[in-house]
């Protein structure tokens, strides 16, 4: 695990040392695209989240060398899993009002577990609601599918849906696992077979992680939270699939609100902290709220920068 936090001491724009962004020995490589990754925003009325999200977007949008694309890793809102409709509506309204006001960069999104509506409501009270489950979040985020891919500036981007329902009436909080459903796994294999472009994969839940071992809390029923909620449980299958596709360079995620950088079989796995920190009251464990800026190069190399945007001047 490696932590790099850049404290802002001057103009935000001067903090991205472009001339240093090309790794040593890579002086011929040309940058293809600069992206920003935001994740785990958890916006909702009644706390500092709207101001905080605004500040994160102001930071990204004020960079003179501005990202062309924002990848949003999900958990956009505070919580929809067991929240009544009016509250969830207010959370999404706040999400849109801050984005409208503070951002003019295109955003591509993934779904987070807290964006899912009604799964943890007792007795399935919302099950027949047309917005139940992922439908509401898909509508709000302008997503026509739960998972998809696209090409931009020579790179291939894959956005996964990590959120898998495993009904457990005894303890609804255990009713969730990080994994792809079978249909999505087949789609992913096919998608990867059809591109040779350097590829970046976005998921809400980390596919591979070490720092999840430091994340523990008890559920309402007194269970220690299981790994199935913290990382992908199908990481072995994904590793075996990824092995066949050397074009995969980078996998980015959030969910843990912790930062880590792992390289395994030549693929870099970044867990890029959170915008919210510990539910907007400070750092989560050792990790301040951050935004991540990533440069993707034509030759498939990548370089990321983690910024504590809360300390940006403004
Ligand atoms: Zn999450």
From TrEMBL:
All copies of domain Calcineurin-like phosphoesterase, residue ranges: 33-258
A Pfam family of this chain: Metallophos
GO MF annotations in UniProt: hydrolase activity
Gene3D superfamilies associated with the record: 3.60.21.10
Protein name from the UniProt record: Metallophosphoesterase
Organism in which the protein naturally occurs: Spirosoma foliorum
